[in-house]
Design goal:
- It is a single chain.
- This protein is an alpha+beta fold.
- It has 7 helices and 10 strands.
- It has a 5-stranded antiparallel β-sheet with strand order 2-1-5-4-3. A 3-stranded mixed β-sheet has the order 7-9-10, covered by helices on one side. A two-stranded antiparallel sheet has the order 6-8.
- The protein starts with 5 loop residues before the first helix and ends in a 34-residue tail after the last strand.
Length: 427
């Protein structure tokens, strides 16, 4: 499987980091809100208990009936007053009195005097916060219980939780969009580097990657690549100059060898064995001369010192000049089919190089198509925007694994060199 792009991976990392941080933040805020609400409820019931203690302190000299009346008024003025009760040391309820209507609650037990504590109990299927306190008033030990409902707290926490859950998808989408935007902004220089690098070939090593304005990692990467390109340009230039110089210098010795061999073949005293040897020398000298000429042409093209001139060229005429040479090959018993547009078909290029290209394609088709039933077809068609030259044959063909390398220099499909003559420099 292909690995996802860097921008998508960065987007995923940003989204995952943001989501993890939001979950942690939401969890902390949820517990903080829960504790704050509980403390608020504790403060409420504590304040109610304090007011009740003040009421009891101020009513020490009152009769039981008057005390009961004050307590009833206190309950009516206090929210959840029915959840406020007072017990004596024996556990008997004093307020509200035994005959009064009161909510039956299983209050928690207090273990020591002058002790206060908070607890949570269940009343009617709902949770309540209870504050219990033991006080001594007028020489009597009393236990005070004050309860407050927690349903509002639960409802608020539920709404807060729902808000968090509904916010997560929106924030996740927002973080993904932000992460993708930031990653694309950060990787834009790399896209420019890639576009510039694709324009660099062996003939354009003088090109350089654009340097970003910021002095960051991208700038250092571009500088490093440009330094590498400079070294490659120098190395390729040295190799190209060596190839051109060597090809140029070798032409004279090979021409001299060929001339001497041809001169020797004119001798009337030459025996048959020597004549065959000199003919081989002449043949190989011709092949070596053509190879050197091809190498010199390529070296000049790489060094941009050749005589290539790009201008509007009638490609039909260039292909026609190549197909005219086929007439001399009729003895090979190939069947030729030539279809060339009669009207001029202009393209931008070098006239000599285009004619040579057409002939190389045709010559390769002829070389690798056996005689006797061999067919070679040449077709040139075009439109206002392009020219299409097709050379087809029914020869041995090219294996699929070799197709990516057919334009490599000195590449031959048959490494044993048992195929027809050639250097692998034509294409």
């Amino acid at each position: 499987m292909r690995s996802p792009s860097i921008s998508l991976r960065l987007t995923g990392w940003v989204a995952a980091t943001f989501l993890s941080g939001f979950v942690v933040f939401g969890t902390i805020m949820w517990f903080d809100l829960k504790i704050a609400l509980l403390k608020g409820r504790d403060k409420t019931v504590f304040t109610r208990a304090k007011r009740l203690v003040d009421l009891l302190e101020s009513s020490r000299q009152d009769s039981p009936a008057r005390l009961n009346g004050k307590f009833e008024d206190f309950q009516e003025d206090t929210p959840e007053g029915n959840l406020i009760q007072v017990f004596n040391a024996r556990g008997e309820r004093m307020l509200p009195p035994a005959g009064a209507t009161a909510t039956e609650v299983a209050w928690p037990r207090v273990q020591a005097a002058e002790m206060q504590s908070f607890a949570i109990i269940e009343i009617g299927g709902q949770d309540f916060r209870v504050f219990e306190r033991t006080v001594c008033i007028g020489g009597r030990k009393l236990r005070i219980f004050v309860a407050g409902q927690l349903e509002d707290n639960r409802h608020l926490l539920s709404r807060f939780t729902d808000g968090l859950l509904w916010t997560i998808p929106a924030l996740l989408l927002l973080s993904m969009l932000a992460g993708y935007f930031v990653s694309r902004r950060a990787l834009n220089p790399i896209d420019r580097f890639i576009a510039s690098a694709r324009l660099i070939s062996i003939g354009s090593l003088s090109r350089r990657l654009p340097l970003p304005n910021a002095r960051d990692e991208m700038a250092r990467l571009a500088e490093t690549c440009n330094d590498m390109l400079a070294r490659l340009e120098t190395a390729v230039g040295q190799i190209t100059r060596f190839t051109a110089d060597a090809s140029h210098e070798l032409r004279s010795p090979i021409s001299f060898i060929r001339t001497v061999a041809e001169y020797a073949l004119r001798s009337p005293n030459l025996n048959a064995e020597s004549a065959d040897a000199f003919r081989d020398i002449v043949s190989e000298s011709e092949l070596a001369a053509r190879l050197l000429e091809d190498m010199l042409t390529l070296a000049r093209a790489d060094a941009s010192t050749g005589e290539t001139v790009f201008e509007p060229v009638d490609f039909s005429a260039a292909v026609q000049s190549a197909t005219d040479r086929i007439r001399s090959l009729e003895s090979r018993s190939h069947e030729f089919s030539i279809e060339i547009a009669r009207e001029p078909l202009y393209v931008m290029g070098d006239r000599t190089s285009l004619a040579r290209l057409a002939w190389i394609l045709i010559d390769n088709a002829i070389k690798y198509t056996p005689t006797g039933g061999g067919r070679v077809a040449v077709s040139l068609t075009g439109t206002d925007h392009e020219a299409n030259l097709e050379v087809t044959d029914n020869g041995v063909g090219i294996p699929a694994v070799a197709l990516p390398r057919i334009f490599d220099r000195f590449f031959r499909v048959d490494p044993s060199r048992t195929q027809p003559e050639g250097s692998g420099l034509g294409l």
